[in-house]
Records
---
Amino acid sequence: MKSSFLKSLYCGLALVFVGLTAGCDGGSPSGPAKFGKGVFEADNPWTKDVSGMEPSSDSTAIINWLDQNGGWGTGELRIDFSITVLAADNSTEVRDFTPTGDFYEPDCDLTPFPIPSGGAIEGEEGYECTQDGDCHLLVVQEDEKKLYEMWRANISGSDFQGGCAAVWDLTKAYPDTLRGDGCTSADAGGFPISAMLFSVEEIQAGAIDHAIRFILPNERIRENVYVRPATHSTSATSGGPDAPPYGVRLRLRKDFPLDSLPSDGARVIAKALQTYGMMLADGGSIALTATSDRFSDTTWDAVGVDSFALTSIQVTDMEVVDMGDPIEWSGDCIRN
């Protein structure tokens, strides 16, 4: 969507959600960022078509292990809608933040962040992290063509504190070590979160042109191991040697009966899982992550997608593809 539309949309919604009008006459737009190829303009690992690839040699072992050890985090392939991706431009306020104990060096970027008026962090009505969640702050700066992402953001009045922050160049085709080998980002696996979220706008347009972010409980992720294109693991992981490692790509089998899904919207997601797959990016319970429809001009209900739209897809309907050699995470980050 155009920034002018985002601005007008924000001005209408800001009164409803946060009681603000700043930005309606020249302020910063707030709303869903432009999606396509996973936000990035250049080709990157998450835009790779893997539909014709043979399953990896470790596919059967990994799928069987996951199936026998609890499967998806909630037991079903659920979708979470709590993350908002905000749009900013050169008129958006830029603020410095104070790093917390969740900021790691040299992995994270200590840089001023654009903060769109009337926006929100993950799981919250505004920018204050009140529920002790991941509180991701995701902002696409459209004029700079940069993506700003932060884990554990918390803005209360003039106080802005933040955990690990990562700035991505949306025009860049990143190497297989992304921002640096062994380095985390605002997501544990080292990925750009926004690149693999899917939006209601994509569903409405009929196609998701990138891999989808998925997460698993830490005990179901291979301990201290990642595979490219991930660049990082965490000490919280505790899965066995056949558990899926960070960066693993699962693909929905080509013969999965798409007609069995409850809506056309659900089928759009499933087709993306067959074409681009989904990549293990973080630890948590609800497997798939979509963007909130809070600032959108349509709703998830309107496209027939809710949290349970894909629960008929079992772990055994997936296969591992495009998997490189396992890399032991040493705890050392070497920035590119």
Note: The CA atoms of residues 177 and 302 lie 39 Å apart.
---
Amino acid sequence: MKVVLQRVSKASVSVGGKIISQIDQGLLILLGITPDDTHDDISWLCHKIAHLRIFNDDNQIMNKSLIDVQGNAIVVSQFTLMASTKKGHRPSYIQAAKPDLAIPLYQAFIQTFEEKINTKVGTGEFGADMKVELINDGPVTILIDSKRKE
């Protein structure tokens, strides 16, 4: 699994012109899933993200986690994170998991993350044409790959 974390002061996801998720301070999590991903990847990533100290303390130093600041999150499935641009000019998405595997892993990620941060998270709509709006706070954007453990 790969994630792009964006620390946000606001974020929302719309489908068909209707907002389906909206948060203030927290994280927008873009999640890419491969056919090789397992519940071990989910557990490792959810723990890492929930405890990652990327929010400012009183001295404006990134020293607090999402849990510490009681922030919110939106998780959006993003198969394009698995794009390979090695050949030509059209990205290949062959490394992205197909929906029959990706949907249950996406749902398991959401459930596990909710348990880690002890609050409900917003979501996108798997496979939909989504419009994601955000105000990246900092800006702070971090990439994490569960296979490389970084």
Note: The helical segments are 39-51, 99-117.
---
Amino acid sequence: MMTTDTKKSKTLLEVKDLCKHYPIRKGLFSRISGYVYAVDGISFTINEGETLGLVGESGCGKSTVGRTILKLIEPSRGEIIWRGERIDGLSRSQMRPYRQQIQAVFQDPYSSLNPRMRSADIVSEPLRNFESLSKAQGRERVSALFERVGLRPDQMLRFPHEFSGGQRQRLGIARALSVKPKLIMLDEPVSALDVSVQAQVINLLEDLQREFQVSYLFVAHDLAVVKHISHRVAVMYLGRIVELAPTKELFSRPSHPYTEALLSAVPVPDPKYQRKQIVLGGDVPSPINRPNGCHFHTRCPYAQERCKVEEPVLEEITPGHSVACHFKLNK
């Protein structure tokens, strides 16, 4: 488990009240009849050299958060502040200098790579976009990146289909690192890989973070992986952050019922240890017609009348540990 002194670190990225609402259009004139509330008012920071894990069930808005920060999709509302400067309202051309500093590694390593390009060209393409290098200089940089991520220089002429899944993900990491970014959004980077390969890629990411002082936004649903790599963890439910805390504190003392249920489902590698698993009732509500009050109250084992009518606010209960719940656990 990783630790860092976030108080001494400088804030790299700050997100304030970020929203992404997709309009639902119906009828002959395509009038808006409602919205899909994919992301609905989340706020957090990422410091230099830090990994923030973003976890939750499928469909809770994790990937949308990452893509909105990258401005692959435009936010509906909110502020995205990069090193003290707002970038959420910038045009495509104005965003170009920031593209070099914020990169991404996606979930499916094969679909995120151009199948018609050789691996050397895939890694060197960002270099050609942002730097003026000769062919010899570019080849030298790409060769060094290949070796650094665990690939052989003689694989530079191969196409993506000639690599294994783990090698393709290493290729994606090399591409992201080629322009020396300060933040990499990792969208489920190991979920499509075998367990043994997952460990290799996670160890590689940790080594690269120490070497290049790069920060990560680590989007995942595998809590065991998140626990290993993250300094802090934000738990999302139905488009909102319900708990945000340092990794060690979140896993040892969860304060939101949803976090407690998620942690109870994590497998423990000890057949003698019996953990009480919390099974949540019902289905995840629709992001179109969300429940009033606390969105989690329809599945919460501790819900009371107040939860049905009053929406909880994400508030700090201990330094660095914030929870959105009226009846916080382990107070």
Note: The mean pLDDT is 90.
